[in-house]
Amino acid sequence: MTPAGHDQHVILLQQVCAAAGLDARDAVRLAGRANAVYRLPHANAVARLRQTHNSPEWDRRMATSVKVTRWLAERDYPTVQPLDAVPQPVTVNGWTVTFWQYEPPGEDATSANATDLARLLRRLHTLQNPPIELPATDPLGSLPIDLHQHPEALTTQQRDWLLRRCADIAAAYPTAPMPPELDHGLIHGDAHTGNLIPTCGGYVVCDWDSVSHGSRAQDLIPSLYRVVRLGSPRSTWLEMCSAYGIDPDLEHHPGMQLLYRAREIRALAAYVRAASRSVAAKAELDKRMRTLMTGEDAIWHAPQGFQ
Q: Which residues form the Aminoglycoside phosphotransferase domain (predicted)?
């Protein structure tokens, strides 16, 4: 992220925290991809800032993430928990902000692996649907909005190709057959090991922005994507499937393949947003577009701060 982008987030953070009665002094930036995430040490909290462009749908999704995590916490599911002292989410100047209780890392904390993720997903997928209106899963995430908001990120040829791919997936998704072993229900929507926080009490799940109702297959796709496109060992996919309790050959199911293609292009969204301010992001975006448009089986490499 450029200094200008960081400064914009800090100014917004200070404004929102002041209005909410939270102390934003000495805020520490933890992440900056789909969300700009800051730890507020004097409030023992975490703030997540997402540019939603005044989208009512994304505001509803962020509100749902707060409601669902409260419901999950009541059922002792290991999730981050919203800060109850603050009415949320808060929308300011096209940004939506949520506040969460800070989860300190354990002394011997280690990064989560595929088995850890699979067990938490299996536990999530066995829960009943919450008494909360869940949005339908959108496998393309924020990409269509981001393409509209950042037309400068792509050439006309790239943009036309990507819009056609989005349209094809959006048209096929509603009637696409999904593996019967992975029925519809409550899903996280963006499940990968990077969204598991190691604490002294075990791993807790964060980043519920995409929580929704859809095929549970959606929650396994990020692990497959990391093997195919990001170079993770294939053993991690086999480990995930074994711990979850499904046949790894399900990756060839037509529904899984459709979700995988959606994940590939959904993963471009952060680069589309950052292309105008980051040379590295623009270069990686062009590389990914080239490999997608030519059908090349290339490993993608994420610059620092991206996946």
A: 31-227
